[in-house]
């Protein structure tokens, strides 16, 4: 699913001379930096998938991923999913939804997503 105006857009990242990414990446227009995310405030977040886990919540398979944009990390839970084609560690991804505060930080439940 793509939000209007975001179809097929890829962000290009600049790397430091040592090959590492800058500590903070400027978000694209309409995208909130993860460090600026707030609970109960809808937003669109872009970053690289850093971790993927599959587990059960209330006996429902759940795909959990962690997204990192260089400013911070946010989690997304996809209830009823064991995997999503095209999502793997290192993939650049956009998620959109309303973060919920929890003991492990902010989490989006079943967010809309775009593979970038």
Topology:
Layout: E1 43-57, E2 60-68, E3 73-79, E4 92-97, E5 100-102, E6 105-109, E7 112-115
Parallel strand pairs: 3-6
Antiparallel strand pairs: 1-2, 1-4, 2-3, 4-7, 5-6
Structure characterization notes:
- By secondary structure, this protein is an all-beta fold.
- The chain is 0% helix and 42% strand.
- It is built from no helices and 7 strands.
- It has strands at 43-57, 60-68, 73-79, 92-97, 100-102, 105-109, 112-115.
- Strands 5-6-3-2-1-4-7 form a 7-stranded mixed β-sheet, with no helix packed on it.
- Strand 5 (100-102) and strand 6 (105-109) form a beta hairpin.
- The protein starts with 42 loop residues before the first strand and ends with a strand.
- Mean pLDDT is 84; it is low at 1-23.
């Amino acid at each position: 699913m793509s939000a209007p105006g975001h179809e097929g857009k890829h962000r290009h990242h600049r790397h430091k001379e040592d090959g590492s990414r800058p500590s903070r990446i400027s978000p694209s227009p309409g995208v909130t930096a993860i460090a600026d995310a707030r609970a109960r405030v809808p937003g669109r977040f872009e970053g690289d998938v850093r971790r993927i886990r599959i587990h059960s919540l209330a006996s429902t398979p759940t795909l959990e991923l962690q997204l990192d944009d260089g400013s911070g990390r946010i989690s997304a839970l996809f209830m009823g999913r064991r995997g999503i084609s095209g999502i793997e560690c290192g993939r650049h991804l956009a998620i959109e939804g309303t973060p919920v505060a929890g003991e492990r930080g902010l989490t989006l439940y079943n967010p809309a997503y775009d593979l970038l």
